[in-house]
């Protein structure tokens, strides 16, 4: 349940956000922070994986764009799952042809959301993945 307006309820969950578009990264990061999550932001998959390797047991959920320079979101998800098989992953993409089937491509707590998305829909997917 979300707190009263102006009051942020601390959720005690850490989310690693990998998004190469600075505007989208900032918007999504602020949305998550306002909903009470601790957010670690990265500009690409390589930077995100560096953050992840430093503390795999502290990251509760990976949210990643599918298409990014350096390391794409699919590869990032696979590397993170190798180190932490139970981590939840939420893939995002603005390209319809990059949509993936989480059940086919990845096992475990995985979902996909198409950009642009509504904040309420996005936050619900985050909540469901963290609650599984």
In short:
By secondary structure, this protein is of the alpha/beta class.
Report on the structure:
The protein has 132 residues and is an alpha/beta fold. The chain has one domain: Response regulator (Rossmann fold, 3-Layer(aba) Sandwich), CATH 3.40.50. 39% of the residues lie in helices and 20% in strands. The protein contains 5 helices and 5 strands; from the N terminus they run E-H-E-H-E-H-E-H-E-H. It has helices at residues 22-34, 45-54, 73-83, 102-105, 119-131, and strands at residues 14-18, 38-42, 61-65, 88-93, 110-114. It has a 5-stranded parallel β-sheet with strand order 2-1-3-4-5, sandwiched between helices. Helix 2 packs parallel to helix 3 (73-83). The radius of gyration is 14 Å and the shape is globular.
Q: So what's the overall shape?
A: globular
CATH superfamily: Response regulator
Biggest sheet overview: 5 strands, parallel
Number of helices: 5
Q: Which band does the percent of strand residues land in?
A: 15-25%
Q: Give the strand order, joined by hyphens, for the main sheet.
A: 2-1-3-4-5
Poorly predicted regions are none
Looking at the structure, the CATH topology is Rossmann fold
- CATH architecture call: 3-Layer(aba) Sandwich
What is the C-level CATH assignment? Alpha Beta
The radius of gyration over CA amounts to 14 Å
N-end to C-end Cα span: 16 Å
Order of helices and strands: EHEHEHEHEH
What is the strand tally? 5
Structural class: alpha/beta
Q: How many domains, as an integer?
A: 1
Q: Level of helix content?
A: 25-40%
Average pLDDT taken over every residue: 87
């Amino acid at each position: 349940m979300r707190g009263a307006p102006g009051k942020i309820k601390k959720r005690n969950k850490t989310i690693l956000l990998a998004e190469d578009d600075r505007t989208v990264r900032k918007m999504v990061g602020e949305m998550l922070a306002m909903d009470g999550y601790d957010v670690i932001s990265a500009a690409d998959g390589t930077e995100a994986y560096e953050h992840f390797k430093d503390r795999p047991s502290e990251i509760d959920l990976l949210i990643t764009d599918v298409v990014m320079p350096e390391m794409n979101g699919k590869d990032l998800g696979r590397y993170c799952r190798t180190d932490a098989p139970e981590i939840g992953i939420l893939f995002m993409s603005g390209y319809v042809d990059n949509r993936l089937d989480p059940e086919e491509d990845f096992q475990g707590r995985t979902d996909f959301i198409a950009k642009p998305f509504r904040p309420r829909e996005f936050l619900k997917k985050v909540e469901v993945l963290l609650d599984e």
